[in-house]
Amino acid sequence: xxxxxxxxxxxxxxxxxxxxxxxxxxxxxxxxxxxxxxxxxxxxxxxxxxxxxxxxxxxxxxxxxxxxxxxxxxxxxxxxxxxxxxxxxxxxxxxxxxxxxxxxxxxxxxxxxxxxxxxxxxxxxxxxxxxxxxxxxxxxxxxxxxxxxxxxxxxxxxxxxxxxxxxxxxxxxxxxxxxxxxxxxxxxxxxxxxxxxxxxxxxxxxxxxxxxxxxxxxxxxxxxxxxxxxxxxxxxxxxxxxxxxxxxxxxxxxxxxxxxxxxxxxxxxxxxxxxxxxxxxxxxxxxxxxxxxx
Amino acid sequence: xxxxxxxxxxxxxxxxxxxxxxxxxxxxxxxxxxxxxxxxxxxxxxxxxxxxxxxxxxxxxxxxxxxxxxxxxxxxxxxxxxxxxxxxxxxxxxxxxxxxxxxxxxxxxxxxxxxxxxxxxxxxxxxxxxxxxxxxxxxxxxxxxxxxxxxxxxxxxxxxxxxxxxxxxxxxxxxxxxxxxxxxxxxxxxxxxxxxxxxxxxxxxxxxxxxxxxxxxxxxxxxxxxxxxxxxxxxxxxxxxxxxxxxxxxxxxxxxxxxxxxxxxxxxxxxxxxxxxxxxxxx
Lengths: 294, 283
Hints:
heterodimer, A: two-stranded antiparallel ribbon, 12 helices
């Protein structure tokens, strides 16, 4: 990663780095250190007195049934968002890759949901499924007699935030799958076709294995997205409700810390989430290193 | 394709087209919702076809505002805030990242790798995991309810720095040597040679970061308390969640359309840069 030819200057490089480093230290490193520090201290309700309590905040958190409920919701939510999103976009990308005519038009028609803010996606789906006027809810209730009211039914609310979060991420997955598909050498597919392999057989024996690096990369990205990128969907649509059925971990940190003013508990949750991001980022980077060698 | 199977081609078109229709359905309903009057929007089932109140809805939302709280501020204020925030984040990120990458690639100096890893760390610390302490820092700097509070804390960027670093590493050394022989110093080389060469990378990053900045939600939610500083996404979400009155869906849907339009237009019309940015920032 080193250049052979460089410039000599004593002060200039520091000046060039200064703005980036200043922002990083003030708004990233320092607050993160604070979060870690706050997770091991206890502040009394009136401020002022703080004392070191070791892992007491973590013990309190981990023995709290509400926290584990949120962990379960998050895991289910992330699993569903990742698997639905990957499955649906792989199907679309495979089909779009097959058609010669119209592929570019299809791409243009499928990229735009990426540009919609998660919170706006939450509003859109909340509108479609609104119990009193939503067109889809109306169809479900009147058309096929299925009672749909996400405002009071926790399972349906969870389904709806999964749907909105998946929708928001479809174009991202689609673009990467399509790029992956288009990088598979045509000669391989043609050779298999000459040997008499049909389209379905070719997909499972050639396309799918060759696409697995892309798929794995997207899996990690989607999990990170489901964990950390979906706050807006939840806040705009359900606010974690009803009865905490859609309270994912990130929403709980915000709710406990900012609304509930439980700084120790919120900081302990932050510390755990930080460990999760670090682990996921390391996986992502190790994987990308491997991909370059392919 | 490798073989001619009309049935399979038909099936492919059918599947992709159904996908397009399903994905576009929420957008269509939003548009339809923004073109009817209030009484139509209170009665299920809603029409599937646009009505005649489009201009009047958009005019009300944009210039008059309606309802209580956040939405009483005319929406053009929120749209302007979003634009300032998106452009600020975009330009800020690109500016400080490109010079940081230049320093890391083209100079040798003590602590170089330490700085590099410090920047890398920001990747692992999204706002979502450090909500309360970051708010405290911004509050203690007196940046609550200000554009600098909306913009500055978001402009550190590991991805942008990496992207420029990657690009600079691919620039041939001969160029640098030639520039040096001609007597150009580091600043001149950067402005006259490197910056113009980085045009495509800058454009790609611009598209990605504009969308990122425009779509921010949690951050403005934390640090703005006055309606004059609300972004459009925030105003929309607040208006949907009003408890005191029944939501006025025709106006809310007009707001949703206006909140989506700028980033969607950017993606659709700058598709090439968008896809390049998406792929490059993941490397």
